[in-house]
Write a structure and sequence with these properties.
Helices cover about 45% and strands about 15% of the residues. Strands 1-2-3-5-4 form a five-stranded antiparallel sheet, with helices on one face.
Length: about 260
């Protein structure tokens, strides 16, 4: 990012594992800069899902840098994830035809359940794969693969934990960090929100705010995708030697299996 230093900008790295995001300041103006962001960002900005895109530039290194309005704010709390606002923004994302069209234009295909299962099975280390809770979850996944019409797939975020929700000081709500975006069953986003943040007695109300009926089929799909995501996180934390976090996700995985054992 030497190019921006030369132009008089002050750059401070912010968040994320990629190390490619910066808070840029010059003469009181603040921007959020990111290297090699997906072209999908423009569509997200146009839909008001992320802070507004100001410009996109290709610099001397050949890298593409995007600039968005800098928004002062905070991530959502666990309690706020059960709010009507979260449900409504999630529905807006899942219902967006422009977002779906953009992902299809850049060559993305639906991530169907069998593909997800194959992907997770091939990624597990011997240690994780041998854990009895993980084995129970894998067996469930193999036996209960959802039968999904690809035409029902929508744009999904894939990592909707509270850290990726930004509430600005102007009370604007955004969902950020779209590196894992996919075309998939919307239950992949809905399920992890409900199992992680929403009390069981409040599921019907949250789903009503989202605009969908709480059916047995939906619940089975939510459970299936939540197990997939939990196993993915267990493997990620083992890879990074963060064993306390890994064990927390194993406990969560066991909770999901046991809570809906008859679904």
């Amino acid at each position: 990012m030497e190019h921006f230093y030369q132009l008089g900008w002050t750059l401070d790295p912010v968040g994320g594992a990629s190390g490619e995001a910066y808070k840029a300041e010059q003469d009181g103006r603040k921007l959020f800069l990111k290297r090699n962001a997906s072209p999908f960002l423009a569509a997200l900005s146009a839909e008001g899902i992320v802070p507004k895109l100001v410009w996109t530039k290709r610099i001397e290194t050949g890298e593409v840098v995007t600039a968005q309005h800098w928004k002062n704010g905070r991530e959502l709390t666990h309690e706020e994830m059960s709010s009507k606002r979260v449900a409504e923004l999630m529905k807006k994302i899942h219902s967006s035809r422009p977002l779906l069209t953009m992902l299809k234009k850049i060559g993305m295909k639906p991530m169907l359940p069998d593909l997800l299962l194959n992907k997770i099975q091939s990624s597990l280390s011997p240690k994780v794969n041998a854990h009895h809770t993980v084995r129970s979850a894998i067996q469930y996944l193999e036996n209960e693969i959802p039968k999904l019409d690809p035409s029902l797939c929508t744009v999904c975020h894939g990592d909707v934990n509270h850290n990726n929700w930004l509430l600005s000081d102007q009370d604007e709500l955004y969902l950020v960090d779209w590196e894992g975006a996919m075309i998939a069953d919307p239950a992949i986003d809905i399920g992890i929100i409900l199992y992680t943040y929403v009390k069981p007695g409040d599921w019907d109300g949250w789903l009503e705010s989202y605009g969908i009926e709480h059916t047995r089929d939906l619940r089975k799909r939510m459970k299936w995708y939540t197990l997939v995501q939990a196993i993915t996180m267990i493997q990620w934390y083992e890879d990074h030697k963060r064993f306390k976090d890994m064990n927390d996700w194993i406990l969560f995985l066991n909770h999901v299996i046991r809570r809906d054992r008859f679904i």
